[in-house]
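Batch 3, record 17
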Amino acid sequence: MMETHRNNTGSKLGMWLFLLSEILLFGGLFILYSVYRFNHSQVFHLAAEALNRPLGTLNTLILLTSSLTMVLSIFFLKSRKPERSLFFLFLTIFLGLFFLFNKYFEWASKVHHGIYPNAPGLLERERGEVLFYGLYYSMTSLHGLHVLVGIGLLSVMFILILRGKINHERILPLENTGLYWHLVDIIWIFLFPLFYLMT
Amino acid sequence: MKSYIFVWLCLVVLTGVAVSVAGMDLAGWSVAVAMVIAFVKSGLILIYFMHLKEEEGFRLLRWMIPGVLAILILFIGLTFLDVAFR
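Prediction for the assembled complex:
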């Protein structure tokens, strides 16, 4: 029988490299945000106050909790308790969906008020406000896309654990997915004050 | 497992602090406070949830992560040298 070669350190390092490139991807957008905020500080101040802060806070707590359920899922799979691991993985997926549901709700109410990219009512407003909402939509939707991908990966992991393909001996894919999920959380930790708190 | 829950509690408390500080009128300080809290929160996640310290490639990562942050800060600095003094 041929032995499959697995390089755990290599896979982990590869994952970390990818995560670092993600930081630079969002970093570019953060630079864009800080320059526009510098040029239009008063307008950004007023526009940030118009965002739904309680909903943003709720979404922050949801993602933080989903990070906890993620590490617990890995912890229980390592301690050979796949049922508990699956339970916490399910919770993580549920919290991710809950986050997106709130996000949809938030975007829908903004769109309802005529604030969406290229909206005729929005374009008549001040330039700073157009920029703020442009950044708001592009950065939160890019992050939302990452959450969606994360939910997909977590669901694949769920099926693989269910089939026993991922277990306490071969846990690396779940760990790497966890790393990705935590990074998505970290990005939100920075997006949240940028758009909802700094007024 | 208890330490995970403790870290999560710290993260929730820090979020509460960030939100209540944002409600106060601290003028220029509100940006600084919000950013410091965000960095502390991501530090907690990196160290305790992502197990950065126990990583096998940690010796390499110890240089790579500050490296990426340095690149980012360098570019923010260079951009603002242009924007602020135009």
